[in-house]
């Protein structure tokens, strides 16, 4: 066990069981990093209440068992001696400090571990991740960019810990707007339509179609008729729909490629895919009495959802005009993910504004038995990205921002950040691209996914603070140490010995990598891994300022150890950034 927090949890649990009985062996000892010691355990507080004893006394007893100190008649915790010191403080806190030797041995161990301390899932789960999901009939905006970036990081981390990941890009590729979109395609000609859509001008295309739909009765009539042939999946209409969708997807793919997003065409499972299932979904739910007709519409009334004046809130799966909607599709989708994809866990990475829809969906699906108890479903709520004016992020002219243009601007600004470096043009472009992309992605990942934040190029491109470029820079700097020393990091295998406090702090930090990765996967929280990487890079900076590595007067044993610490830090940062989807340029 290399992770200190897990190690201490296990040891304290053993001590609890010996001291107070086996029923305490899985009590959470509440081990947290502390400013007074390496860790603090707070379990004695709640335990004191439960045992009706003074928490300080309880804490002392745990400390004694933990360290094997004899108190009269006490049984010792079995196993090797405790590699650290334990002190009782305040009303009953346990302050735990680990021995340097333990930290040194564990860090040498994870340096030799190809997974750097990240455990592989014992029994792999099938994790379905619904993310990105732009709408073809509208623009792909910065909000979709964030769901794409966060979802992709989650997919990467689940794959890394050995789960079976099924990515699902639930494109908005169906519904009544497609009548006018297809008619507009006929009006302007296939070639022109394709060119415009591939260039990412879906919004302009949509607006042109919409204007005609509103002002031209003949066009309006055609568009409505087209909706009917589309619903019936009539071949010629489907051919035109495919032309429209292929061009649109080709633009989405440009954005994905540009950002290193792992979604492929195989992962597309848009709304259209569920169209053939919708009638049956409604029929079945109605027959089983799960859905009832209310004001002409077919609705599920999941328990616990009420609107004004305690009226039960409907989850409408068929409108009174017979049309299906977003809710119908999502009911079909959840059933498919459980029954056909065999999901153990379904993660929906979608805007926070859809919170009510999502919780009603989950409740309705549970009622229908389509989301059994053992399947975990969660809405990873994505907060809005705001402009400097505090409103939804738009361009100066007020129009929403075209993503490729935004990414171009990120590249340009990143190029300015590295302008004083001496690189040839090709290298410069490559580095600028990695830095620009990394800055934009990391900004989305480093704040908690459900909080809003202000899109600010200057802040995300800063070389200090919790930014992508800072972490890229820290990583590139470690690579340059090895380059300068002419040493292959793979050969820096230690052993690690700890002398300087900055070495100890760095090594202790590095031991937490596995837990940080596990926590990100468990809680769907990329910002936790981001914070860990930032703390690691900061600990490295302090180490690097205090502990020379390549200088001639450094002892051989110390140099070997410091190189090993550099190598482990490098691997943790590289792996961690890769899990977040943030690229690292070789030099910076
Ligand atoms: N296309 C939707 C939007 O842009 C997101 C779809 C999310 N996935 C889902 N299963 N509802 O808001």
TrEMBL record:
What is the catalytic activity of this protein?
Answer: tRNA(Arg) + L-arginine + ATP = L-arginyl-tRNA(Arg) + AMP + diphosphate
Arginyl tRNA synthetase N-terminal domain span = 6-98
Domain DALR anticodon binding as annotated: residue spans: 471-588
Which Gene3D superfamilies does the UniProt entry name for this protein? Arginyl tRNA synthetase N-terminal domain, HUPs, Isoleucyl-tRNA Synthetase, Domain 1
- Provide the alphabetized UniProt keywords: Aminoacyl-tRNA synthetase, ATP-binding, Cytoplasm, Ligase, Nucleotide-binding, Protein biosynthesis
CDD domains, from UniProt? Answer: Anticodon_Ia_Arg (cd07956), ArgRS_core (cd00671)
Output one GO BP term.
arginyl-tRNA aminoacylation
Spell out the GO cellular component terms annotated for this protein, sorted alphabetically and separated by semicolons: cytoplasm
A Pfam family this protein belongs to? Arg_tRNA_synt_N
Compartments, as annotated in UniProt: Cytoplasm
Which EC number(s) are documented for this chain?
A: 6.1.1.19
A GO molecular function term, named singly, is: ATP binding
The family this protein is said to belong to: Belongs to the class-I aminoacyl-tRNA synthetase family.
* Subunit-structure text: Monomer.
Designated name of the protein: Arginine--tRNA ligase
Gene name of this polypeptide: argS
């Amino acid at each position: 066990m290399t992770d200190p927090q897990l190690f201490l949890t296990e040891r304290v649990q053993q001590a609890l069981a010996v001291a107070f009985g086996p029923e305490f062996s899985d009590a959470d000892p509440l081990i947290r990093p502390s400013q007074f010691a390496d860790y603090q355990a707070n379990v004695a507080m709640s335990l004191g209440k439960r045992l009706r004893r003074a928490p300080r006394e309880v804490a002392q007893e745990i400390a004694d068992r933990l360290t094997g100190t004899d108190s009269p008649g006490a049984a010792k915790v079995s196993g090797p001696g405790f590699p650290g010191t334990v002190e009782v403080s305040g009303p009953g806190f346990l302050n735990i400090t680990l021995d340097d030797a333990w930290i040194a041995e564990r860090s040498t161990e994870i340096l030799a571990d190809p997974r750097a301390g990240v455990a592989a899932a014992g029994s792999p789960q099938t994790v379905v991740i619904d993310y990105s999901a732009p709408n073809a009939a509208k623009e792909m905006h910065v909000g979709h960019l964030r769901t794409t970036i966060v979802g992709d990081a989650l997919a990467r981390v689940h794959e890394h810990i050995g789960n079976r990941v099924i990515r699902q890009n639930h494109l908005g590729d169906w519904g009544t707007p497609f009548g006018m979109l297809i008619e507009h395609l006929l009006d302007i000609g296939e070639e022109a339509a394709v060119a415009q859509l591939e260039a990412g001008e879906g919004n302009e295309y949509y607006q042109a179609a919409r204007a005609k739909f509103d002002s031209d009765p003949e066009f309006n009539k055609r568009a409505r008729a087209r909706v009917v042939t589309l619903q019936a999946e009539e071949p010629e209409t489907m051919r035109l729909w495919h032309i429209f969708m292929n061009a649109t997807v080709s633009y989405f793919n440009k954005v994905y490629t540009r950002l290193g997003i792992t979604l492929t065409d195989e992962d597309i499972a848009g709304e259209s895919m569920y169209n053939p299932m919708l009638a049956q979904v409604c029929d079945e739910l109605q027959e089983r009495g799960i859905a009832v007709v209310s004001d002409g519409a077919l609705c599920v009334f999941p328990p616990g959802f009420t609107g004004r004046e305690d009226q039960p809130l409907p989850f409408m799966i068929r409108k009174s005009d017979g049309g299906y909607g977003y809710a119908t599709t999502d009911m079909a989708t959840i059933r498919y993910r459980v029954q056909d994809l065999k999901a153990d866990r379904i993660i929906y990475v979608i805007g926070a504004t859809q919170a009510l829809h999502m919780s009603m969906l989950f409740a309705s699906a549970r009622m229908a038995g389509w989301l059994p108890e053992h399947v975990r479903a969660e809405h990873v709520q994505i907060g809005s990205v705001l402009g400097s004016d505090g409103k939804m992020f738009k361009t100066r002219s007020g129009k929403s921002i075209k993503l490729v243009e935004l990414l171009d601007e990120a590249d340009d600004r990143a190029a300015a950040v590295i302008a004083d470096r001496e690189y040839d043009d090709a290298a410069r472009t490559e580095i600028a691209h990695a830095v620009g992309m990394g800055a934009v992605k990391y900004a989305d990942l480093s704040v908690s996914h459900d909080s809003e934040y202000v899109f600010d190029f200057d802040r995300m491109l800063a070389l200090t603070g919790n930014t992508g470029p800072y972490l890229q820079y820290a990583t590139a700097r470690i690579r340059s140490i090895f380059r300068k020393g002419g040493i292959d990091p793979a050969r820096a295998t230690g052993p690690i010995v700890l002398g300087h406090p900055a070495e100890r702090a760095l090594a202790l930090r590095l031991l937490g990598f596995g837990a940080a990765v596990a926590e990100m996967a468990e809680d769907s929280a990329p910002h936790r891994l981001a914070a860990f990487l930032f703390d690691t890079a900061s600990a490295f900076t302090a180490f690097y300022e205090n502990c020379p590595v390549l200088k001639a007067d450094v002892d051989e044993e110390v140099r070997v150890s410091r190189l090993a610490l550099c190598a482990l830090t490098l691997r943790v940062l590289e792996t961690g950034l890769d899990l977040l989807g943030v690229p690292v340029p070789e030099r910076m």
